[in-house]
Amino acid sequence: MYTKEYPEIHYPKNLTPNTDLVYYSNPKVGFTESVFESKLKKYFANYLIKDKVINDGRNYPYSPDFIIFIEENNLIIDIELDEPYAFHSKKPIHLNDKKRNNYFLENGWGIIRFAEIQTVKYPELCCKIISEYIRNVTGNSIWIEGFHELENLEYFKAWNLIEAQNMALSSHRNSYLGFLQKIINENPKINILADGIYLNQQVQETKKILENVPEIIKYNNSVKISIFTKLLSRYFNHFPSKETNDTIYIEFSIYISNYHSFYNFSFDSDFIELENFIINIYFIRTDKFICFQIADKIKEEKTKKTFIIADDPAYFRILKNMSKEDIILVRNSHNTHMPDNFKFVNIDNLIENSLEIKYK
User: Fold this and answer.
1) 175 CB neighbour count, 10 Å cutoff
2) Cα–Cα distance between 128 and 304 in angstroms, integer?
3) Nearest C-alpha neighbor of 271 from the set 251, 297, 301
């Protein structure tokens, strides 16, 4: 009997994967895949591929849910989200994927299969699994930076036929997809976009100045995102809101260059709850210029009510035609390269201010 537990992980059988891909639209993309894709894009934006299959002439090819392709390391991974039954027909599925797995393995691909419920409840931990997988193959530790304080994803026992039928009868998937529907319908009211290199520099400088202050010694090993959100929260209301809902959803996206270490910065969790704010955190690795990544996000997603944590001369040109009502800069008060005609939050002595430490 073919049994498994999730995540189910297979490493490639050879180091020369078949990368001859062709476009193939999958009309059966599920709701969960669409939501998890938004998380994958944040972490693996430059390596994520959709709607592609191996070009082997099949009329009905095996279509991966997602593909992660690290070209410089000749690594390609099939990422799958397995459901216990089809949503409408209630037919049990993913009882035996051995034939499909062998197909990708024989083509030199790696495979990571998650249970759908894992990607719904623990998307960050699923991304950690992918990052560790890439680290294990490439030997490059940058992939797991930022994940080192997250707990590990617990294994989930795979279902058999009887269990899948019982899940279908009880509409088990609705028990967690309802939560996902609620979250995805809440578009962020505020966006925080951070240049991780700049943010890390501020952390290091502040820690060096205050390294012997007893009140902050416990923060010296790992500075958490909640420190920065605590500092910024007092400024969230600078953006007037017409929302009647008391809860305000915020996206905090942190861009980190592949060429810089970031061990001194880490996540708290998927979500931070702070007063009446719920903050969804993303950690984005990129090999592109961060200032242009941030500019592209603002333009492509038409983000409003945006904080930018950065300091780069390029922003003079990037922000030239952007609304001063929709952007607040988070920068140093002195020695800054950022425009001076935008509202800004001063982050001199960042940790000291955010923790509201009082000295005698």
Assistant:
1) 12
2) 30
3) 251
Residue 77 buriedness (CB in 10 A; 0-12 / 13-18 / 19+): buried
| First-to-final CA distance of the chain | 70
**What does each of the 360 residues of the chain score in pLDDT, given as a tens digit?**
445 899 999 998 877 899 999 998 765 556 678 778 878 887 888 899 989 999 998 888 999 999 999 999 999 999 999 999 987 789 999 999 999 999 999 999 999 999 999 998 888 889 999 999 999 999 887 777 667 667 789 999 999 999 999 999 999 988 877 656 555 555 678 889 988 888 777 766 666 666 666 655 554 444 566 667 777 777 887 776 655 456 778 888 888 877 765 555 555 545 566 677 777 777 777 878 899 999 988 888 888 889 999 999 999 999 988 888 889 998 888 788 898 889 888 877 665 555 554 433
Strands 223-224 and 344-346, sheet pairing:
unpaired
Other C-beta atoms lying within 10 Å of the C-beta of residue 138: 15
- Which stretches of the chain are assigned E, i.e. beta strand? 5-6, 8-10, 21-23, 48-49, 52-54, 66-70, 75-82, 110-115, 156-157, 190-195, 223-224, 248-257, 265-266, 271-274, 277-286, 306-309, 327-331, 344-346
Neighbouring residues of 234: CB distance < 8 A, sequence distance ≥ 6: none
> pTM of this prediction?
0.60
Cα-based distances in Å from 53 to 26, 116, 312: 10, 22, 40
